[in-house]
Structures are given as C-alpha cells and as structure tokens.
Amino acid sequence: MPQLLDRLQQGLLYFDGGTGTMFQAAGLAPGELPETWNILHPDRVRQVHLDYLQAGSDILTTNTFGVNGLKFPDNGSYSVEQLTEAAVLIAKSAITAAGKQAYIALDLGPTGKLLRPLGELHFEDAVDLYARVVKCGVRSGADLILIETMNDAYETKAAVLAAKEHSNLPIFVTNVYDQNMQLMTGADPAAMVALLEGLGVDALGLNCGLGPEQMEQIVPVLAAYASVPLIVNPNAGLPQMVNGQTVYECSPEVFAASMKRMVQSGARIVGGCCGTTPAHIAALVQATSQMRPAPITPKDHTLVSSYSHAVKIGEQPILIGERINPTGKPRLKAALREHRLDYILEEAVRQQQAGAQILDVNIGLPEIDEPTLLREVVQEVQGVTDAPLQLDTSDPKAMERAMRIYNGKPLINSVNGKQESMDAIFPLVKKYGGAVIALTLDEQGIPETADGRVQIAKTILNRAAEYGIAPRDIIVDPLAMTISSDTTSAVTTLQTVYRIKHELGLRVSLGVSNISFGLPNREIINAAFFALALQNGLDCAIMNPYSTEMMKAYYAFLALSGQDPNCADYIRFATTLTPTPTATASAAVPTSKSSAGLREDGLSELSKAIIHGLQKNAGQLAKAMLQSLPPLELINGHIIPALDTVGKGFEQGIVFLPQLLMSAEAAKQAFEAAKQVMQSDEPKQQKGTIILATVKGDIHDIGKNIVKVLLENYGFHVIDLGKDVEPQLIVDTAVQHHIKLVGLSALMTTTVPSMEQTIQLLHEQAPWCKTVVGGAVLTQTYADMIHADKYAKDAMDTVRYAESIFKD
Amino acid sequence: MALSIITRTAAPDDVCIDIAEALRYMGYKHAQPDQQTSALIQDCVNELKNAVNYTACLSEISISVRDDEIDFGFLQIKSRDLSKNLSGCDRAVLFAATIGTGTDRLIAKYGKLQPSRALILDALGSAAIEGWCNLLNEQVRAIAEKNNRFLRPRFSAGYGDFPIAIQPQLLNALDAHRKAGIYLTDSCMMLPTKSVSAVIGVSDRPRASKAGCAACEQTDCMYKI
User: Fold this and answer.
1) Cβ B35–A149 below 8 Å, yes or no?
2) A182 inside 8 A of chain B by CB
C-alpha cells in the first residue's frame, strides 16, 4: 500500500461517513456509549466499516471518538487501552475481509470538558488524556491520527501536541465551524490554518456542525490560506424535525453535487459526518472519482494568531506594541516584583485600544523566575485581549513554556545568526509553531554594512530550512542603531530593510525607537525614521502605540501609499487628535444632581468625581491637586470622604452596586496618582491582609472580584487566589502569611460542600483565622450550617466585617 | 444519543434583552440608575451584542407522568414539583440554549480590569439567555398551537425538587456539547455560564399556571419580586 502522504499527492481520498444512525439501526440503546461496542459487539462495528469500504471509503475512522480517561475512568468496566486496541483491530479485520486497500485513522474527539480559563480542564491534563489514546493507537497499528469535531482551538492544540509527542504518524485535523465561520470559542479559518500549519499537521479542514451547502462558503477561505490538503466531512445537511424524528435534509445526490463543487474549490480528502450513510459516500465517489483535484499550492502568507483571529504580516504594515517590557520602566518593574499582574493587563488592553495589532510580552528581570512568570503572564494577557502576542525572552526555557501554553501561533522574539541561538530556537518553532524575528547579528557582532547584515539573514534562512521552517515564517530585523554615535547608521539600516524585502523576498521588522538613543526629543527622529523605513518596505514595527508622533507617521504613510481607501483610517485618526486637555479643577463633572440624592455640598470636585464614578476626571483632578497637596491629605480629605458617602448610600439602599463599583474604580485612579508621588518612607495606608477565593468546583468569580476592589479601596491588602481553588491551597496560604480573615464565595448549591470543607480545614490548621462567606446561593442558614464566622449579604457587608476584625 | 435533535440559532438583534430584568439582577428593585450608570449600561449592551452567539438544541419526546414520577424514556426521575408542572402532559420539549463563550470572556476580562463593567455584562448576559429562551419558547408554542396543543411553563433542573444532578443525563441526551457547545463541569455547572437547559411540557389541555418568581417557593432570595 502506498504511503498515505504520497497517495495524497496523487488525487482524492475518501473518508467514511456517520456512524451514529447506523449504530442506532443496529440496536444501540439510548444512553449506551457506542465505544463499548468495540468489546460487546465487534461484529456490528465491523459491519459498519465493511459497508463504508464497499461504498468506496479509503480511510476508516476507528470507533474511538469518545474514548478518553474522563469518559472511561480507570475504575470503569473498560479501559481506554482496551477500547482503543479493539477499535483498531476491528478496522483492520474489516479491511482484510473486504480485500481492499484502506488506511486506519485513529479517531480523537473532544474530551467533553472545556479548557481553562473558560472551563476547568488544565491544558496539560488535556494533552495527557489524548496521549494515552495515541500511544495505544500507534501500538495497535493505526495509519494516521484524525483529530475531529473540535470546536475549541486550544483543545485542538492539546490533541495535536499529544499526537506529535507520541507518534510519527500523519496528523489530520478537522474543526467544527458555525454559520458565522467561527469555532465555538471564536477562532476563524485563518486563525486555525495559522495554528495547525504552525504545529505541522499534514491535512486540515472541517467536519460536523454544518451541511455541505453551508461549508461551501468556508472551503474557499480555508483554501486561500492553507498550504496543506483540505479535508471536508459535512453532515447530511441540517437536521429537521419531521413527525418527531430527525431527518437530515440532504439526499445522497444533493450531498454529492455539493461535495463536487467543494472539490473544485480545493477539497482533497472528502467524506461525511452526522446523518451521512454509505449511500452518501457511494454517491460522492461516483460524482468525483474522475475529477482532478486542485493542486496543493504552498501559500506565502506570514500569519500569527490568537485564539480568535490571525494577523497577516507582509501586506499593510503591522504595529507591535512594546510597552510590556520592564526596561526603563520603574513602575512595571515594581509591578512584576510584587506580582501585580493587573498593571500588565491594563497595558495590554490600552495598547490594543491605541492601535497595536500584536503585543510584545517581555518580563525579564534578573531576580524573577522568568519561565514560571512568563507562562503565567501570557495566559493572563490572553484572558483580556485577543491580539496575537510576541513572546520576548532570551531564556529558551521560558520561551518553550510560553510557546507550549500559548493559545494560537505566536511571534517569537527572537533568534539571531549565532549558532547557539539557532540551535535553541528553531527546534521550538518546529515543534510548537511560530513566526520568528531574526536579528542580523552573529558571533562577530552586528555588521556595519548592509551586505554583512543581508549575509546573516541568508545564513539564518538556510539554517531554518534545515529544520523545515519556511521562509514565510522568518521576519528579519536588520537592527536600528542610534545615529547619535554613527550618523550613517540609519542609512545602512534603511538599505538593509530594502534589500531584505526586495532581494530576499522576506518580511522585515524593526525596533524603531533605538535610532534616536541619546538625542533630545526622540519622537521627532523616531517618527521620521519610521516613515522612511515603511517606504523602504518595513512590514512591522515594534513601537510605542501611545506615541502620537509615531501614529501620525503611520496613518499618514498608509494614506500616502494608497493603502487607506478613501483615507478613511487617516480621517478617523486625525479628527480624534485634540489638544491635550490640561487637568484643572474645572474638569467636567455633570451638573445634574445625583439621582441617588447623596449630599454633596461642601465636597471637593475630586470627591464629586469619585461619587459620580468618573475615572478619568478623578485621576486628572487628583494629579492637579497633588501639585500643592500632600498625598496623605488628598487621601484622607478627599478620597475617603467620597467613598464613605457612596458606601453609606449603598447601605441605605439609595446607591446601587454598579455605581458603588464605578466610584471604587474612580477612587482607584486617584489612589494611583497619590501613590506615585508618595515617598517610600511615608506610612503605608494598609489595614490588613485578607485572602479571597472562589471555592473548588466553582468558576463564577464575579462576586469575589467585586469584593476585592472594594476591600482594596478601603485600604486592605488582598491575596486573590482566583477561582476553582483547592481547599488546601487556601489553608496553606493562610498559614504561611498568618492571615486573620479569609473570604470565600460560591455560586451553586453543588459547590457549597467544598466551601464547608475549606472552612473545616481552616478550623483545624489555622484556628486563629475567621471566615466570611458570600455568593448567590448562600443564606444565613447555609452559613451557619457550614460554620462560617460571618455571612456577608453584599460587598459592603464584607468591608464592614473586615473593618471590625482589623480594628485593633 | 438516540433522541431526535434539532439545532437553532438566532441573530443578535432577534433576541430581546430586557434591561429592566438586568437592572433587577444588579440590585435595583424599583429604582432607576443615574445618568453615568445608564450610559455605561448602554455601552455594555452594545459590547454584549457583538459578543453573543445564540445557539440551542431541542428535542421533542414522549413522557409519562405518574404520581411524583416522570419517565422521559432515557431517564426516570422522582420530583413532586416537576410532576405538578407536567401533569396532563404526554410529551415534552427538552432544550439546552446558550449565548456562547464571548460573554464569559468579557466578564472575565473586566472582572480583572473594571468590575463595574463585569457586573453589568453579567446581568445583561443573564437577561440575554432569558430572552433567547423566551424566543425558543415562542417558536415551540407557535408549532404546538397549530396542532391544538398547549405548553406548560419551562422548568429547569435545580427548580424546587427537580434535582440538578440529572444535568449530565439531560445534556448527554441532547448531545448538547456537540450540538450547541454546552459543557458541564464536575459540579454540574453549565459552560458557557450563560446557558439554560429546561423541560417544556406539552399537553392537549391548556392550564393557567404560575411562572417566574411566582412559581418558586424560595422566600429568602434577594432577587425575588
């Protein structure tokens, strides 16, 4: 039998179709797990395989869709290994009996659990679940691995990694798209192509969810990006209810006609999913077997992606936000040392709002554990932004950990011409996927001439090719060096940009702002250099998206180079440019009286801004007042009185929760301003440390987050352990820091027992510690039942209780 | 596995998000939000509409109700409250519906950055899934009434003594993970968080019955009106 991948080059390959309907016809009972038939009724499973072989299928899918350690736990009737091995052997025996050549695809379906952060399954646990099935499937003699019906990009990545780490078999992947051309968790076709080709799969496509006609819209989009063969396994149309029975709308003839059109637009491996039968496959084979499929053409797109979308480098210039990098930023350094990740998350969101399409993430500080922290920061940043990330570290271990858990195809910063660098980075790119920034320096340093830099780019390109990394995934950074020490350096860099783009045909990136190092008013030089570099072919720039001068240069360049239809982006940008508002005491607080009827007479403008929840104004007013007022007076004379007014209003039922939070957020801006001017020897306004956690099994943490912001406002330090937290972790933290108060939240009755367990453990191991509980299902009765010290009916109630605990 | 299941989707503008309902979830009993809050709420409505992805799967089945026991074919349970709700019904529509993962991402994001926004989006998300269920309910009612059949108010696991522990069987039977992207955690929470599963009784006879807060016997609920 020819090798599968060789066979794929020659022409169409046919998958099998649905099995559910056929198993039901053969007697599968409601609620019965079809995979158990591998042991109980192997003859019936074999017959389905035989029917498909008869219909013309070249690939049989093993009956292992739902086989994993969660659905078949070790204490159950059948083990994962038993079911997997039996499934492969049944497929083999069907092929032997049919006397036909066919390939066996080890079928991997979704685990059935949603991955963190949206769900509860850890990424590495998902990898392990798949690894067990893969190992056994390989041993039993599968010819390829089919990862199918995946509606989440992240789970797909886990399955592909397991397949890569435990086999050398070809890997095929199909995802479920909806009518908006997205996976359930948001990825579009380009994002999936970027992720999957980055991981090196051999074929990709779509199955289930839609009928062939709906898929006809998606196949051309996949074909425009994919360099590997496309798989299309639709349902037999959308199911309709007719007389209480599900009927799939597509007859074999209609199905085959639609499939024929998809073969024309690029499908090469075709079959069916739910509702399709051997008759559909037979009709498909008959309609298409004489067709010559569209050739498989490598595409030259440079793509990086997030969980939702891909960013294409090489067309319109791309902005890479540089602000998450501690170099020269004392506040970010402090935030990293104190593990205040909120600060980084805010930078991520702000940069994207300012126009950055990719965000650089660099957290390198000598005294931190970079591999652990970078992994955590990448996960957290992906929780608040859908921009693809540029992973920026010189520590290969940190790079590997971050690449592994990254949800998408990242940009890698960076590799260079040194042997050591290429040996460390290229294997990672090969394994996890990524586009990589290649710096034109090597063991001899940075060449002074364009020739020397182009030569290094060629060396890197050749070495990448040895690893099987395509030129499209190499983005050369020819290095901008300051003109203050060598006035010809800009010219050299610009020449190199031009030559790499036009002679080597590669993408080009630059860290723009280095060019002006040591000069006054650097933005003037930076912006002019940026425009020149763009004109010479720069594809992406690592830059400060908050710099108005840089953004002016960017939008002007797009408009002038004919890349901004109707100058629409430029007009939108230019009309938002207004003179910087000066922070004065007259910043606009609405004059309309507070609907809550709070007493505001005698209060300062800052206090009023806080009461009205005006974040921006509160920050500006605080800054202006701090020019003549010591920070402690600002806090005690203006921020605290405002918070008190709102807090009391809430307790009286005339202020409501959203407004309470808006005030808290405005107060936070004012606190931040005060903190910045506070001397380190001034006493810290901290009343005590409190642990907050949403209990094990519970993933709704909104209530906990609300309590946290209020407690911080009232001067408490909060250790936020997050959601779905193990009881022992809460207890250990309480013991370690000798914590006096732990706040626990739960939303559902089903998770109150883990709250009770946590309290019991605290009583045993941290008997000095008080507990306060809250959450939608909790009542005083429940709180008493589980021996909590306090039931808090709302966030202010928790604040008051904390004040009473820490009053001495 | 063996049920006949159909799927439904809706466009963001097809579903009514009841702002008054959302305000109630935020703790406003009868009061109105002030100007600042209203503006923020409107902003959140727009953001939510870009994030929702209304999906559902439904199945109509034969049932039998005897005393406190209900037989769904694939599942037999004992529940006084549900059997009261389903009395006189020989069929039922089971469904699972969701507004998708986009809203959960927004709530998680603002939970870290701007809790006021997270709170409002959470409340609006609850109103949105309620609106989506109402729309599905209306679609089922329209078909039933053509056949001179009448519906009972929809009833979810966790109401009264209808145990939440049946969720795995109910969602499995509806193939809700594959058909609608709805997952269940080990503690029987649905994911995405703004998801609902329910039973709608179908009968030959109309019956006026309580729905919403009036049908619930809990007295110490902070949302009760």
Assistant:
1) no
2) yes
Structure confidence by residue, pLDDT tens digits, A83-101: 999 999 999 999 999 999 9
Partner-chain contact B115 A706, CB within 8 Å: yes
CB contact under 8 Å between A31 and B116, yes or no, is no
Report helix angle A568-576 to A548-560, nearest 10: 150
Query: Could you identify the residue written with the tokens 């963190």?
Result: A116
Strand spans (E) along A3-89? 13-14, 59-61
Same fold for the domain at A4-288 and the one at A688-805?
Answer: no
pLDDT over threshold 60, residue A591: no
Tens digit of each residue's pLDDT (9 = 90 or more) over A201-220:
999 999 999 999 999 999 99
Residue A622 corresponds to which tokens in the numbers above?
A: 């605080």
Q: Which tens digit of pLDDT belongs to each residue from A743-752?
A: 999 887 888 8
Taking only residues 5 to 24 of chain A, the set having a beta carbon closer than 8 angstroms to any beta carbon of chain B reads: 20, 24
Task: Tell me whether A1 touches chain B (CB under 8 Å).
Answer: no
Q: Which of residues 571-630 of A touch B (CB under 8 A)?
A: 590, 592, 594-596, 612-614
> How does B117-152 read in b/e, with b if 16+ C-beta sit within 10 Å?
bbbbbbbbbbbbbbbbbebbbeebbeebeeeebbbb
Contact criterion met (CB below 8 Å) for A410 and A434: yes
Place of tokens 């906990």: A704
Mutate to test the interface with A, among B98, B178, B188, B221 (most CBs of A within 10 A): B178
Per-residue b/e over A275-311, b at no fewer than 16 CB within 10 Å?
A: bbbbbbbbbbbebbeeeebeebeebebbbbbbbbbbb
pLDDT tens by residue, B11-32: 999 999 999 999 999 988 888 8
Which A-chain residues 654-673 have CB contacts (< 8 A) with chain B?
A: 654, 656-659, 661-662, 664-665
| Sequence-ordered list of residues with C-beta below 8 angstroms from that of A205, at least 6 positions apart, any chain | A172, A173, A174, A175, A222, A230, A231, A232, A233, A267, A269
Q: Domain A605-677: state its class.
A: mainly alpha
Q: Taking CB atoms and an 8 Å cutoff, what residues of chain B touch A793?
A: 222
CB contact under 8 Å between B101 and A186, yes or no, is: yes
Question: Are the Cβ atoms of A119 and B34 closer than 8 angstroms?
Answer: no
| Topology at the third CATH level for domain A4-288 | TIM Barrel (3.20.20)
CB contact under 8 A, B37 and A241: no
Which residues in chain B have Cβ-Cβ distances shorter than 8 Å to A650?
none
Contact between A564 and A570 under an 8 Å Cβ cutoff? The reply is yes
- How many CB pairs (< 8 A) connect A and B? 184
Tokens 């039996």 correspond to: A86
For chain B, which domains are there?
Answer: 6-215 (3.40.109.40)
For chain A, give every domain's residue range.
4-288, 300-409, 478-578, 605-677, 688-805
Query: Of A567, A494, A504, which is closest to residue A537 (Cα–Cα)?
Result: A494
CATH architecture label of A478-578: Alpha-Beta Barrel (3.20)
**HEC secondary structure over A115-152:** ECCCCCECHHHHHHHHHHHHHHHHHHCCCEEEEEEECC
Residue B225 pLDDT grade (very low, low, confident, very high; cuts 50, 70, 90): low
The tokens for A564 are 């901004």
